[in-house]
């Protein structure tokens, strides 16, 4: 995942300033076009340079990405119970796949959808609906875990069960007002729910 550290590096290198906390939160999980939404004064050249620096930093440190505590155990448990698992991300599929391989989580997923697989991005429900179709599931049979407001919004619009993940980047004060069906602090809580 392109975390705020990657964006922060690119912003600092080109704009000579750090991202503020609300700016970090805004950019998390969004495609690069969010840079121009957040900073409408950027020229095309500046945007391209920020993206280039961000991706260089990301590529350099990508191998250091670790999964959150308990995630591997949760995914293993869900697969053993026969659940089909998919991932929707605004990243390129090859980048998401590399992260999953680096963390040994790749084998758990039946379908991985990157930004090239769908023209719409969350909060649109379209990526989630396409994922459900690829998994051969009805939306009402799906539970979607997310740590960003756009995840919860997309889940509601897709008529899926929403789980707000607070064990990583997710913040209670940002996700709770969106009324997810579940707010979990630990991956184990999802395992217990589906037992």
Task: Describe this protein's structure.
- The chain is mostly helical and 195 residues long.
- It folds into two domains: 4-64, DNA polymerase, domain 1; 71-193, Rossmann fold, CATH 3.40.50.
- 47% of the residues lie in helices and 9% in strands.
- The protein has ten helices and five strands.
- The protein has helices at 4-15, 21-27, 34-38, 44-61, 71-80, 93-102, 126-134, 149-157, 172-175, 187-193, and strands at residues 86-88, 111-113, 143-146, 161-165, 182-184.
- A three-stranded parallel sheet has the order 3-4-5, sandwiched between helices.
- Strand 1, helix 6 and strand 2 (111-113) form a beta-alpha-beta unit.
- Helix 5 (71-80) runs parallel beside helix 10 (187-193).
- The mean pLDDT is 92.
Total number of beta strands: 5
CATH topology of the largest domain: Rossmann fold
Strand content: 5-15%
CATH class of the largest domain: Alpha Beta
Annotated CATH architecture of the largest domain: 3-Layer(aba) Sandwich
Q: How many H/I helices?
A: 10
What strand line-up does the widest sheet have?
Answer: 3-4-5
According to CATH, the homologous superfamily of the largest domain is HAD superfamily/HAD-like
Q: Mind summarizing the main beta sheet?
A: 3 strands, parallel
| Relative helix content | 40-55%
Protein name: Pyrophosphatase PpaX
Organism: Litchfieldia salsa
Keywords: Hydrolase, Magnesium
GO cellular component, one term: cytosol
């Amino acid at each position: 995942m392109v975390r705020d550290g990657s964006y922060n590096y690119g912003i600092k290198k080109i704009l000579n300033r750090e991202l503020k906390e609300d700016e970090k939160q805004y950019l998390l999980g969004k495609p690069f076009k969010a840079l121009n939404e957040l900073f409408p004064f950027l020229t095309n050249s500046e945007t391209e340079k920020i993206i280039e620096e961000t991706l260089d930093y990301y590529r350099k440190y990508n191998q250091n990405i670790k999964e959150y505590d308990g995630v591997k155990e949760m995914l293993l448990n869900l697969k053993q119970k026969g659940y089909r698992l998919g991932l929707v991300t605004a990243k390129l599929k090859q980048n998401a796949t590399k992260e999953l391989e680096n963390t040994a989580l790749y084998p758990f997923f039946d379908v991985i959808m990157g930004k090239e697989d769908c023209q719409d991005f969350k909060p649109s429900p379209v990526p989630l609906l396409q994922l459900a179709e690829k998994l051969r599931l009805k939306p009402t049979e799906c539970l979607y875990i997310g740590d960003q407001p756009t995840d919860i919004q997309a889940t509601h619009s897709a008529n899926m069960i929403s789980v707000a993940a607070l064990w990583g980047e997710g913040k209670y004060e940002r996700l709770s007002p969106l009324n997810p069906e579940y707010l979990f602090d630990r991956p184990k809580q999802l395992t217990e729910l589906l037992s």
